[in-house]
Write a structure and sequence with these properties.
The chain is an alpha/beta fold and 407 residues long. The chain is built from 15 helices and nine strands. The strands form two sheets. Strands 1, 2, 3, 4, 5 and 6 form a six-stranded parallel β-sheet that branches. It has a three-stranded parallel β-sheet with strand order 7-8-9.
């Protein structure tokens, strides 16, 4: 999901309360900074179009609710990742497809403009081999991804346009079924296709042909089954969790984890609180947030004054109705450690869903990322294992897609 006040999409699992990250030993900080660190699901492109907001300036997670910017990436030791072109699900009509296509292309342009505006700090990455030299030069790595293939409409060939723009990972569905696949969270709670649609299978063929990595996050378990059976390359879950820890439709069970790993795939652990644990109802907060969401419209242009007004209202909601039952860093690590126990360090990574609803108590924004490295060391994982988790695994999957493309 997108964080509230990005472009107006609703999100109940949002940040509140003081940061509680514990100090990480200096030697761990140094190790973390030396690693190549990539997050596979950055919703930060939504911030790029906010009035008066700059990726170059340091912002505060408890003031404007954003979680990623250049100064915080440097301090938190995040070298980059996959910057998502997210489009919310709309009607499956020609008009709906057209609007979504235009929105997605413009969001992709915003990512490219970020890179073009500051070549000293950002570099577009197109192949797996690009990441290490970009990071070694002290720059941030910008891979591009698509969350929700809805903007492609019924024209699978449009994927070529996004590939040419730089997209190297693409998901099929989001919160609802679309023309390509079933969602794990469709309001109907019933499958539409029982996995990929016939058009979805054509889209998968196009991904494999181009070298675009298939992303099964948000899609149903049956879609993952289809991807594992049909894809000529490994599959990613760019931001997901484990059903064995918390039984939520967005998470996957151990059998699917093992099947994913058996085909060379990777699960990237998210930090989206309502997917990590059951939370107690907070009806007053939910009602107030719903009223605030009602003032927003997806894709609407928001003035600086209006955004300031909405931020003030949001902060007042946090003061009056604090989220006292948020998921914690320990909840996040429980999912990660479970996945590591089931499939090992060759098949687990990190996709926290920053600026899209991710963030828990103790892991509030990218400043807190060294805590993950510290926790993995304490759990007995080697530096080599942790390097795989932070970037080695996803780069292996991307490289496999590159080798197989065109076949």
């Amino acid at each position: 999901m997108r964080l509230f006040l990005m472009m107006g999409a609703a999100c109940v699992a949002l940040l509140s309360g003081p940061a509680s990250a514990q100090a990480v030993p200096k030697k761990v900080q140094q190790l973390h900074q030396s690693l190549l660190t990539l997050d596979t699901h950055l919703d930060t492109p939504a911030s790029l179009d906010l009035p008066g907001w700059s990726i170059e300036e340091e912002h505060g997670v408890h003031s404007d609710y954003t979680q990623v910017d250049l100064p915080r990436m440097k301090k938190g030791g995040l070298d980059g990742g996959f910057w998502a072109i997210y489009t919310s699900q709309g009607p499956l009509t020609i008009e709906g497809f057209r609007k979504a296509r235009d929105f997605a292309i413009l969001r992709g342009v915003s990512i490219r403009n970020m890179v073009a505006a500051d070549p000293a700090n950002f570099t577009l990455a197109l192949e797996a081999k690009d990441a290490a030299p970009i990071a070694a030069a002290g720059k941030r790595v910008v891979y591009m991804s698509i969350e929700n293939a809805y903007p492609l409409g019924e024209d699978v060939s449009l994927l070529q346009t996004f590939y040419d723009m730089g997209v190297r990972v693409a998901g099929f569905a989001h919160f609802a079924h679309n023309q390509f696949a079933d969602s794990s969270t469709d309001p109907s709670k019933k499958p539409r296709y029982g996995g990929l649609s016939p058009l979805g299978k054509e889209l998968l063929k196009a991904m494999n042909r181009l070298g675009v990595v298939p992303d099964a996050s948000h899609s149903s378990d049956q879609v993952l089954d289809d991807l594992l059976a049909l894809s000529t390359t490994p599959v990613l879950l760019t931001h997901s969790g484990c059903k064995a820890v918390y039984d939520h439709p967005r998470n996957i069970d151990d059998a699917h984890l093992k099947a994913l790993a058996a085909k060379g795939g990777v699960i990237q652990m998210n930090a989206y609180g309502t997917y990590l644990k059951a939370s107690k109802p907070n009806p007053e907060r939910q009602k107030a947030m719903a009223a605030l969401f009602g003032e927003m419209r997806e894709g609407a242009k928001v003035s600086a004054e209006k955004r300031a007004e909405l931020l003030a209202k949001r902060q007042e909601i946090d003061r009056l109705y604090p989220d006292t039952d948020r998921a914690t860093f320990e909840d996040f690590m429980a999912h990660m450690l479970h996945a590591l126990q089931v499939v090992g360090p060759d098949h687990v990574g990190i996709g926290a869903d920053w600026d899209g609803g991710g963030g828990v108590t103790g892991l509030e924004d990218v400043l807190d990322l060294p805590r993950i490295t510290n926790a993995l060391l304490k759990a007995g994982y080697s530096e080599a294992d942790i390097q795989k988790i932070w970037s080695g695994n996803v780069l292996r999957v991307l490289a496999a897609a590159e080798v197989a493309k065109g076949k």
